[in-house]
Design a protein that fits this description.
With 200 residues, the protein is mainly α. It has helices at 22-44, 49-52, 54-66, 68-86, 94-113, 119-145, 158-168, 170-195, and strands spanning 7-9, 15-17. It has a single domain (7-195), classed as Arp2/3 complex 21 kDa subunit ARPC3. It contains 8 helices and 2 strands; from the N terminus they run E-E-H-H-H-H-H-H-H-H. The longest helix is centred in the middle third of the chain and has 27 residues, at 119-145. The chain is globular, with a radius of gyration of 17 Å.
């Protein structure tokens, strides 16, 4: 594509958003909106967010499809926008959720864009990194204020808080591993059929 084009295709087969064109901001706005809307819909049907992890989905997709910049920005903005719109996640856990989600998007994008890993391996790497970042964030908050917060309530120690979150969220992890690679594959096929260009 031309230098003016904001969406540039890299050797990683990801479309990289470099934020020099309005389209990058529009893509980011769409992904943040979806990341806020989907958890809201889940709550309307009484589907627990900590179990199905709907807020994670579009953050991970943003990193995998559009690169680490988009993943990081969507990861930071999603929980902040969600809190501003709906009051979720709770203010007590908002900082650690920002750290967790931004790590998902950043690492997914780096593994896909810089290391050229397949979608599934990039996704798994991002999931592991995000949970390690969550553990560090919980520990930092505990050392700072002497209390531990998790989406599931108060816990006795940082590791227990993170483990309880991971344990409840395993259905969401399975959902992500099943749906995200499938969704990206479908986007590739659609893009290939419409434009005749190379896959993502």
């Amino acid at each position: 594509m031309s230098n003016r084009a904001e969406v540039a295709e890299s050797r990683s087969r990801a479309i990289i958003l470099t934020y020099t064109d309005i389209r990058s901001y529009l893509f980011t706005l769409v992904f943040v909106s979806l990341s806020v809307l989907v958890p809201w819909v889940f709550h309307q049907f009484h589907l627990a967010g900590p179990t199905f992890l709907p807020m994670h989905i579009f953050v991970l997709i943003a990193g995998l499809v559009f690169g680490w910049r988009a993943g990081l920005i969507v990861g930071v903005l999603t929980p902040l926008a969600s809190y501003g719109v709906s009051g979720m996640p709770a203010l007590t856990v908002l900082p650690q959720i920002v750290v967790e989600l931004s790590t998902y998007g950043l690492v997914a994008g780096l593994l896909r864009e810089k290391l050229n890993l397949p979608v599934v391996w990039s996704l798994l790497g991002a999931m592991i990194a995000g949970r390690l970042a969550l553990c560090l964030a919980v520990l930092a908050i505990y050392l700072s204020v002497g209390e531990i917060y998790s989406p599931l309530g108060m816990e006795s120690n940082p590791l227990g808080a993170v483990w309880a979150t991971v344990e409840q969220g395993w259905p969401g992890v399975i959902l992500q591993l099943a749906l995200i690679p499938l969704g990206i594959w479908l986007v590739r096929k659609l893009r290939l059929n419409i434009s005749g260009s190379r896959p993502l």
